[in-house]
């Protein structure tokens, strides 16, 4: 099944179909309806409904069911796996009186989608996650907002969210400015002056943290751009070992790398491709035409200019891919150069 959208709206009645098509005007989505009420811009619900749900369940990030909640619960039950993998499931009645966040409220984004749909349809949003009901943020929501890594995800989320609901003090220290929902948390401004909290959330790109506290949970935002330049046919092992040394020298956690970037001439360079694959991130290519627009901001090399037509690679690539936020200038190794940018 080929889908261009990350959202599906499913309806079984004519009124439900009309509501689904109304939603399609608001956001890009695929609309599935009963065979008997097919029309333009809709696709058929094929076969038994529960089997159909199984076919689309992991094809989309968001599933909007316009029908009774009981039908939805019985249909999705066999396919639910894990809160970090399941799609967001939203249910609404065909008159759009209520929009219900049913599954994957935080990580999947069902709560956020429920609010958006309710605002558009002038409906009553129904959200039952405990932290939201108590007007507090949650650790899993912060992780989602930051696209972050955390060790022992399930255990730590359960622990911190229960602390918040029990009224215990959970501190947050950020070593950069992050726009996140911190309701219910205690914001720590001075990392050298921490007291009277039960545990501390440390949000950082650093590999080695510099806070000495009894109970610390590190969250690593995935927001670092790694730019790479190298000689043709550089050895992949040499590339990776140099990369690790570069990160250690700058105290950057490998898990914080969001993308690897280089100039268009390096699009087929296997050492860079293999590095991106090893890190499980995208390899982004920056055209030389884009570099020419900003190269005057950086140190120039006549050799590089004669070789590839631009004065430099690593610093402009980090600068461009991080939206003008280069924070580690070029560092040279044998035949390899690295730089870092940070996405805001």
What does this structure look like?
By secondary structure, the protein is α/β, with parallel strands linked by helices. It has three domains: 7-128, Rossmann fold (3-Layer(aba) Sandwich), CATH 3.40.50.11220; 148-221; 224-342, CobE/GbiG C-terminal domain (Nucleotidyltransferase, domain 5, 2-Layer Sandwich), CATH 3.30.420.180. The protein has helices spanning 14-26, 49-56, 69-76, 110-121, 130-133, 139-146, 153-166, 236-249, 270-279, 288-294, 302-308, 314-321, and strands at 7-11, 30-33, 43-44, 62-66, 88-92, 98-103, 124-126, 148-150, 170-174, 186-187, 199-203, 216-221, 224-230, 257-263, 282-286, 326-333, 336-342. The strands form three sheets. Strands 3-2-1-4-5-6-7 form a seven-stranded mixed β-sheet, with helices on one face. It has a five-stranded mixed β-sheet with strand order 8-12-11-9-10, covered by helices on one side. It has a five-stranded mixed β-sheet with strand order 15-14-13-17-16. Strand 13, helix 8 and strand 14 form a beta-alpha-beta unit. Helix 8 (236-249) packs across helix 9 (270-279). It starts with 6 loop residues before the first strand and ends with a strand. The relative contact order is 0.08. The mean pLDDT is 93.
**Number of individual domains:** 3
Which CATH first-tier class of the largest domain would you pick? Alpha Beta
If you average the pLDDT, what whole number results? Answer: 93
Query: What is the straight-line distance between the termini?
Result: 36 Å
| H/E series | EHEEHEHEEHEHHEHEEEEEHEHEHHHEE
The computed structural class is alpha/beta
Strand content bin: 15-25%
Strand order of the largest sheet: 3-2-1-4-5-6-7
Count, helices: 12
Shape: globular
> Spans of 5+ residues with little confidence (pLDDT < 50)?
none
The beta-strand count equals 17
Architecture per CATH nomenclature, i.e. the level-2 architecture of the largest domain: 3-Layer(aba) Sandwich
Helicity range of the residues? 25-40%
* CATH topology heading of the largest domain: Rossmann fold
Global Rg? 24 Å
Query: Biggest sheet, open or closed, and with what strands and sense?
Result: 7 strands, mixed
Q: Please state the oligomeric state of the protein chains shown.
A: single chain
């Amino acid at each position: 099944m080929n889908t261009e959208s990350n959202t599906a709206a499913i309806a079984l009645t004519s009124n439900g179909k009309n509501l689904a098509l109304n939603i399609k005007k608001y956001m890009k989505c695929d609309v599935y309806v009963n065979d008997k009420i097919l029309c333009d811009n809709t696709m058929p619900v094929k076969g038994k409904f529960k089997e159909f749900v199984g076919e689309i369940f992991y094809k989309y990030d968001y599933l909007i069911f316009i029908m009774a909640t009981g039908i939805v619960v019985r249909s999705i039950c066999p396919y639910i796996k894990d809160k970090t993998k399941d799609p967001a499931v939203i249910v609404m009645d065909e008159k759009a009186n209520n929009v219900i966040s049913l599954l994957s409220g935080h990580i999947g984004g069902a709560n956020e989608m429920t609010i958006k749909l309710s605002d558009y349809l002038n409906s009553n949003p129904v959200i039952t996650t405990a932290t939201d009901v108590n007007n507090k943020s949650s650790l899993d929501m912060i992780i989602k907002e930051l696209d972050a890594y955390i060790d022992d995800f399930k255990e730590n989320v359960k622990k911190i969210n229960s602390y918040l609901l029990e009224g215990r003090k959970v501190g947050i220290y950020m070593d950069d400015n992050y726009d996140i929902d911190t309701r219910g948390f205690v914001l720590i401004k001075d990392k050298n002056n921490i007291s009277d909290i039960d545990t501390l959330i440390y949000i950082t790109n650093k590999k080695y943290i510099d806070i000495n506290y009894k109970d610390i949970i590190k969250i690593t935002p995935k927001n670092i751009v790694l730019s790479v330049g190298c000689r043709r046919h550089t050895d992949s092992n040499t590339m990776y070992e140099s990369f690790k040394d570069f990160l250690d020298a700058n105290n950057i956690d490998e898990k914080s790398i969001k993308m690897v970037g280089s100039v268009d001439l390096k699009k087929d360079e296997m050492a860079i491709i293999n590095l991106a694959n090893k890190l499980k991130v995208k390899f982004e290519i920056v055209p030389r035409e884009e570099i020419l627009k900003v190269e005057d901001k950086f140190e120039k090399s006549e050799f590089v200019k004669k070789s590839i037509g631009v004065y430099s690679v690593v610093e402009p690539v980090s600068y461009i891919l991080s939206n003008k936020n280069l924070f580690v200038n070029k560092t040279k190794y044998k035949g390899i150069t690295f730089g870092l940018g940070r996405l805001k």
